[in-house]
Every structure is written in structure tokens, then in C-alpha cells.
Amino acid sequence: MILPQQRRENPEPSETDRPIPWWVTVMVGLLVAFGVVYIAASRLLDTPSDWGDGRTRVELAGAPAGAKVDGAALYASMCAACHQAGGAGLAGVFPPLAGSEWVNGRDSTVAAIVLRGIEGPLTVKGATYNGQMPSFAAKLKDEQVAAVLSHLRSSWGNASPALAAETVAKARAAASNNAPFAGDKELLPLR
User: Fold this and answer.
1) Which residues are CB-contacts of 149 (< 8 A; sequence separation ≥ 6)?
2) What are the backbone angles phi and psi of residue 84, rounded to the nearest 5°?
3) Whole-number Å distance between alpha carbons of 30 and 24
4) Contacts of 122 (CB under 8 A, 6+ apart)
5) Which residue, 91, 95, 119, 170, shows the most beta carbons closer than 10 Å to its own?
6) Does 135 fall in a domain?
7) Shortest CA distance to 97 belongs to which of 108, 89, 85, 105?
């Protein structure tokens, strides 16, 4: 017995014995061949830098040895997501760097904070923040940490002297462990 619902249904589609038309196969082959020839003949690496974001091949390869590290660019790429472009942080989540007693404090302490990171409650400008700051010891060289900290210490109303790479190297060597600081508990004695 065939139900009315079954009667209104169409049969399942099938390809039967109709293969792909030969002209479609030829067209796809020609398009693939054209793509291969086009990519092989193009000079993608020799295009002028003003067609893109303006950086040259040398800039994309990285700074040559002895070149000055751009602390503002490093801050923008590694720190601004949390501490914001203006160093104001996010209330209750990420502490501000503008006017921070930690940024403007002892050279060795601020270098150690960037190298080791922080976990747990930290008081900045009278407000407590309970979050995590990652360690940058494995990601940044001493010159890069010094450049970022020098940028922080001279931006957004901060008026502390620049840090030398030697100060960061000493802080790196003095670290008895690489575990993040436990917030105010471990950092207040270093202030």
C-alpha cells in the first residue's frame, strides 16, 4: 500500500550513464594549465613595495645585526592587545602602564616582570588586578626587552630613563627561577 506522502515524492536523482561532457574536461584542463603558466611567469617577489604595505624585502627579512630595535613597534605587536595602544589598560582586567609605579620603578624589577611574567593579584595605581601576564624571556632578546621598556618609560606621561640591554641581561641572569611572579606577594619586596 502506497501512502499519499510517498506518492508525492520524486525519485532519487541519479547520474545514469551521462559522464562529464568532454568540453568541460578540456576547459578545466586549459584553466589549470593557464594558472600554472601564469604563476610561473609572474614575478611576485619583485613587485614594488608601494603596491603593498610599503615594507621592503630587507625590512621583512628582519633588522640587520646592530640595528636599533623599535620598541614602539614591539609594544604594538606584543603588548597593546592587553594594555591598549595608549597604555591605559582595561579597568579590572589589565593594569595601566601610563603612570604605573612598576613601569617607573626600579630598572631591574620592571625588566624581571617582562622576562618572567605575573600570576595573581597585583596592585597598580591603587587598584588590584588579578590576571596573568605571560613571560617574554623566550620570545624577546635583551635588546628587544630594553627597547620595549624604554618606550614604556618615556610614553603616556611616564618620564623614567631608558633601559639598557645590559640591565635586562643582568635581570635575566639573576632570575633564580623562570616561574611567573606571584603578584604583590613576590613583587612588593622588589619595589
Assistant:
1) 71, 103, 110, 111, 114, 162, 163, 168
2) 70, 160
3) 10
4) 95, 102, 128, 129, 130, 131, 183, 184, 187
5) 95
6) yes
7) 89
Give the closest residue to 73 by CA, choosing from 175, 123, 148, 159.
148
23 part of a folded domain = no
Does residue 142 belong to any structural domain of this protein? yes
If DSSP codes are grouped into helix, strand and coil, which group holds residue 17?
coil
Q: Cell triple for residue 130?
A: 588579578
In degrees and rounded to multiples of 5, residue 171 shows phi and psi of -65, -35
Where helices occur in 119-161 by DSSP H, the ranges are: 142-152
Identify the band that residue 19 occupies on the pLDDT scale cut at 50, 70 and 90.
Answer: confident
Confidence category of residue 57, pLDDT binned at 50, 70, 90: low
Write the CB contacts of 123 (distance below 8 Å, at least 6 apart in sequence).
129, 184
Angle between helix axes 165-174 and 142-152 (nearest 10 degrees) is: 110
Q: Across the strands, what pairs with 124? A: 127
DSSP helix/strand/coil, 19: coil
**Neighbouring-strand partners of residue 90:** 94
Residues 6+ apart with CB under 8 A from 151: 71, 72, 74, 75
In total, the chain counts a number of residues equal to: 191
Grid-cell match 630594553, residue found:
146
- How far apart CA 33 and CA 178 sit, in angstroms, is 55
CA-CA-CA-CA torsion sign (131, 135, 139, 140): positive
Structural domain contains residue 97: yes
pTM of the model: 0.62
